[in-house]
From TrEMBL:
TM regions (residue ranges): none
Documented EC number(s): 1.1.1.22
One BP annotation, GO: polysaccharide biosynthetic process
Protein name as annotated: UDP-glucose 6-dehydrogenase
GO CC entries: nucleus
Organism: Cryoendolithus antarcticus
Lineage: Eukaryota, Fungi, Dikarya, Ascomycota, Pezizomycotina
Catalytic activity reported: UDP-alpha-D-glucose + 2 NAD(+) + H2O = UDP-alpha-D-glucuronate + 2 NADH + 3 H(+)
Binding residues annotated for substrate, in chain numbering: F188, L189, S190, E191, K246, F291, L292, K293, A294, G295, G299, K365
């Protein structure tokens, strides 16, 4: 059979979050003839996407959104790639929209990408490990109810292997007379570098069923990406492989972090330097230098939940040894945070009573304002158990509301009163007994224009960094001219 190439004119993305928003914006930017609409139930989020103050911070994101949403033609370099430093000149028709009209938008779409949250289940069977598919199922029901014949349904969220079957079951329940092509197109972007990752992805994976309609749908989606991604980076898989490769990729990345962290514990007892070891082994091309930075362990909304999902999947497939293997990655991650907090407490003579502790950086990594699942929360939890006078947090991007929302999960009844969120790093550091650097924000490492603040010889300075950078790094906090340097005790 000669397949007729499918034309896509209208894309709907359900979920205007860290993945849905930037991905849809990138598709719209590079496909000016296609209408891309991102829908979300969260009115506040949609309002923000339609404003100048986008709901998420990502370097370069506002340029891409302004180009596609407001019709400003982006600057493009000689190779056809978008370059924010090149002036926007002429206009183009806006083709990126954000809306709460889910049903209407789905009804007009040729492709619906489901990009909703898939967190870890909190209650019931598999709590703490299995994926909570409530939002995903809800979105799938909306698609099954409202979409038109032949609409391509794309799994963009990270989901357990065999979710394609779940979509099929739901669509057949609602529209038994129709057969929707289902694709898996997992997203590999990282927060903080989302635009860079989307602009030049290592690969785009498209999983499909090996039926004529499945293959045609995969080709149609591949065409959308091919407008800016080199053809050889667009890889077609069977749908189950595509689903499982996302969990595998995150598990492998997290595993490297836990592996180097386990070595850091040995280093602390022996005098070996984990930074030197990471550099030395990273020179081995079979190992490579990425993801070998020892620290507080991984945070964020993905790695922990995806490994938990993988272990649950292995267990439900009757593979307890496989589950136990990956479980160790999480165990090591928790151990690293405990070890860090216990070290700090020990350095403060095993008592935090009457002491102020400063936390510089709350985001789970630099260049994002995402406060979800930050390693800082685990450290704060342990510190609070020792009854400190106060804990002052400064983060350049995380909002106080988001940090307070995360703190509300802590068991300590007085957590909200003891913890103060400061808008100024100097205020946060004042009269502190310990300054803990928990996010690798550049501003905490920057070389000052003038001479660095000199460390005063004090009895027991406690400056604990999330990474093996030296305490001197911390003393390079940008200085405010003519004001006294921060008191670091
Ligand atoms: P998010 O929580 O930031 O956004 C999800 C959005 O979906 C929310 O705004 C929510 O209101 C909306 N939503 C939920 N159900 C809906 C429904 N039925 N109709 C309309 N809107 C609905 O989540 P995220 O960080 O963008 O992650 C989305 C998915 O992508 C997850 O599966 C995640 O694992 C995966 N992922 C995330 C990242 C990342 O770095 N954040 C990277 C790769 C993959």
């Amino acid at each position: 059979h000669r397949r007729v190439r499918r034309q896509i004119r209208n894309v709907c993305c359900i979920g205007a979050g860290y993945v849905g928003g930037p991905t849809a914006a990138m598709i719209a930017l590079h496909n000016p003839h296609i209408r891309v609409t991102v829908v979300d139930r969260d009115e506040k989020r949609i309002r923000a996407w339609n404003s100048r103050h986008l709901p998420i911070h990502e370097p370069g994101l506002s340029d891409v959104v302004r180009a596609a949403r407001d019709g400003l033609r982006p600057g493009v370099d000689g190779t056809g790639h978008f370059d924010a430093s090149i002036e926007e000149t002429t206009t183009r028709a806006p083709n990126l929209f954000f809306s709460t009209a889910c049903a209407e938008t789905i009804a007009e779409a040729d492709v619906v990408m489901i990009s909703v949250n898939t967190p870890t289940k909190r209650q019931g069977q598999g709590a703490g490990r299995a994926t909570d598919m409530t939002a995903f199922e809800g979105a799938t029901r909306d698609v099954a109810t409202h979409s038109r014949r032949g609409c391509i349904i794309v799994e963009k969220s990270t989901v357990p292997c065999k979710t394609g079957q779940l979509i099929k079951n739901i669509t057949q329940q609602h529209r038994p007379e129709l057969d929707f092509p289902i694709l898996s197109n997992p997203e590999f972007l990282s927060e903080g570098t989302a635009i860079k990752d989307l602009m030049r992805p290592d690969r785009v994976i498209i999983g499909c069923e090996s039926t004529p309609s499945g293959i045609a749908a995969a080709e149609a989606l591949a065409d959308l990406y091919a407008s800016w991604v080199p053809q050889e980076r667009i890889v077609t898989n069977n749908i189950w492989s595509a689903e499982l490769c996302k969990l595998t990729a995150n598990a492998m990345l997290a595993q490297r972090i836990s592996s180097i962290n386990s070595i850091s514990a040995i280093c602390e007892r022996t005098g070996a330097d984990v930074g030197e070891i990471a550099k030395s082994i990273g020179l081995d091309r079979r190992i490579g230098p990425q993801f070998l930075k020892a620290g507080l362990g991984f945070g964020g909304s993905c790695f922990r939940k995806d490994i938990a999902s993988l272990t649950y999947l292995a267990e439900s497939l009757g593979l307890p040894e496989v589950a136990a293997y990956w479980e160790q990655v999480l165990t090591m991650n928790n151990y690293q945070r405990d070890r860090f907090a216990l070290n700090v407490i020990a350095k403060l003579n095993n008592s935090l009573r009457g002491k102020k502790i400063t936390i510089l950086g709350y985001a789970f990594k630099k260049d994002t304002g995402d406060a979800r699942e930050s390693p800082a929360l685990d450290v704060i939890r342990m510190l609070l158990e020792e009854g400190p006078k106060s804990i002052a947090i400064f983060d350049p991007l995380c909002s106080e509301a988001d940090i307070r929302y995360e703190l509300s999960a802590l068991p300590a009844a007085d957590a909200q009163d003891v913890v103060k969120v400061c808008a100024d790093p100097y205020e946060a550091c004042e009269d502190s007994s310990a300054v803990l650097v928990l996010t690798d924000w550049d501003m905490f490492k920057m070389q000052p224009r003038s001479a660095p603040v000199k460390a005063q010889p004090v009895d027991s300075p406690v400056i604990a960094s999330f990474s093996p950078s030296t305490p001197a790094d911390l003393l390079h906090l940008p200085q405010r001219s003519k004001e006294k340097p921060p008191t670091i005790v």
